[in-house]
Design brief:
- By secondary structure, the protein is of the alpha/beta class.
- The chain has four domains: about 1-85, 2-Layer Sandwich (Translation Initiation Factor IF3), CATH 3.30.110; about 85-175, UDP-n-acetylglucosamine1-carboxyvinyl-transferase, Chain (Alpha-beta prism); about 180-185 and about 280-340; about 190-275, Dihydrodipicolinate Reductase, domain 2 (2-Layer Sandwich), CATH 3.30.360.20.
- The protein is about 35% helix and about 30% strand.
- The protein is built from eight helices and 16 strands.
- It has helices at about 15-30, 50-60, 100-110, 130-145, 200-215, 260-275, 285-295, 310-320; strands at about 5-10, 35, 65, 75-80, 85-90, 115-120, 150-155, 165-170, 180, 190-200, 225, 235-245, 250-255, 300-305, 325-330, 335-340.
- The strands form four sheets. Strands 1-2-4-3 form a four-stranded mixed beta sheet, with helices on one face.
- A hairpin with a 3-residue loop joins strand 12 and strand 13 (about 250-255).
- Helix 1 runs parallel beside helix 2.
- It starts with a strand and ends with a strand.
């Protein structure tokens, strides 16, 4: 029997990303995995519903033998077999991010032997993960430059804390991923903002957009409120899209109870101003999401902002599964990652 790769879930940032990346790499490489101290760095350690859904999704597409797949489990044994394309439905059952469940199984399905159709249910807009608009505007177009085709549709939004969102994904795979070089973003071509509102007064969105208009010089016709009437519960998300000749960045903030509209917008503006002041084509969230596919491709490079602890931990996990160098070079206020 092949000895499993041992992963300590308490390393680095000690959160769910270690679990998701380990599962993704296990099913891509076929290497069995044992992970201990799952989410040891979090207030509620062990597997929560969102993480358990990711485990079950990874097991389903790879017909894996799994031990420890239970709520609050701190240790997991995962032995995958061949990845199977197909039609799948995964539901988190809470407002936990269904987008992060997709992150776990997408790398393997982008390299599967046929197309796949996914339906995912759970949170689509919550404070601890990129929103659905990030997937469609920043992540998917970048991934498609590496070969696969992704078709995403939001059926129903799911805001924290009610959840209840649903989206579909059609994945057209390739035999191998192409390395991507993304070192410059070119001239800015457009910036726009949307205040998404579900069962809340439209005035909240208008106040958010007023702040962005003032701080980011947004023209009035580039700032809109969008009412989402089919959401299960109330919610608000402020989504700013920055378009460049060779890149797109999506900056978002989820409205929270007790936090003013002006504060939500100021948080968005702060992140946007830092990105605009840099020369990076890849933002923090996109950098996290590109690490695995770029490492699997084994070529290319991208420039981003200073690496978070989240990203550095992700790199450490990748190196446990793939014998490929990832070079991190600091260049002024940015960092270049090279996968060769």
């Amino acid at each position: 029997m092949v000895r499993p790769i041992m992963i300590d879930g308490s390393q680095g940032e000690g959160g769910g990303q270690i679990l998701r990346s380990s599962l993704a790499l296990s099913i891509v490489t076929g290497e069995p995995l044992t992970i201990e101290n799952i989410r040891a760095g979090r207030k509620k350690p062990g597997l929560l519903r969102q993480h358990l859904t990711a485990v079950k999704a990874a097991a389903r597409i790879s017909n894996a033998h799994v031990e420890g797949d239970a709520i609050s489990s701190m240790e997991l044994s995962f032995h995958p077999q061949a990845v199977q394309s197909g039609t799948y439905h995964f539901a988190v059952g809470t407002a936990g991010s269904a987008i992060l469940v997709l992150q776990t199984i997408l790398p393997a399905l982008m390299l599967a032997d046929g197309p796949s159709e996914l339906t995912l249910e759970g949170g689509t807009h919550n404070p601890w993960a990129p929103p659905f608009e990030f997937l469609t505007r920043a992540f998917a177009p970048t991934i498609e430059r590496m070969g696969p085709r992704l078709h995403l549709e939001l059926v129903k939004p799911g805001f924290y804390p009610a959840g209840g969102g649903r989206f579909t994904v059609r994945i057209e795979p390739v035999a191998e991923l192409k390395g991507l070089t993304l070192l410059t973003r070119g001239q800015e071509t457009r910036r726009s903002a949307e205040a998404l509102l579900a069962h809340l007064p439209e005035k909240i969105g208008e106040r958010e957009l007023d702040v962005l208009k003032r701080r980011l010089s947004l023209p009035a016709d580039a700032a809109t409120c969008r009412v989402l009437s089919n959401s299960v519960g109330p919610g608000n998300a402020l989504v700013l899209t920055l378009e460049f000749e060779r890149a797109v960045e999506v900056v978002s903030t989820i409205g929270r109870k007790g936090v003013s509209a002006e504060k939500v917008a100021s948080e968005t503006a702060d992140v946007a101003e830092a990105f605009l002041a840099s020369e990076a084509p890849v933002g923090v969230h996109l950098a996290d999401q590109l690490l695995l596919p770029m490492a699997i491709a084994g070529g290319g490079a991208f420039r981003t902002l200073a690496l978070s602890e989240h990203a550095r931990t992700n790199i450490d996990v990748i190196k446990r599964f793939l014998d490929r160098p990832i070079r991190v070079q600091e260049e002024g206020a940015t960092v270049v990652l090279r996968f060769d």
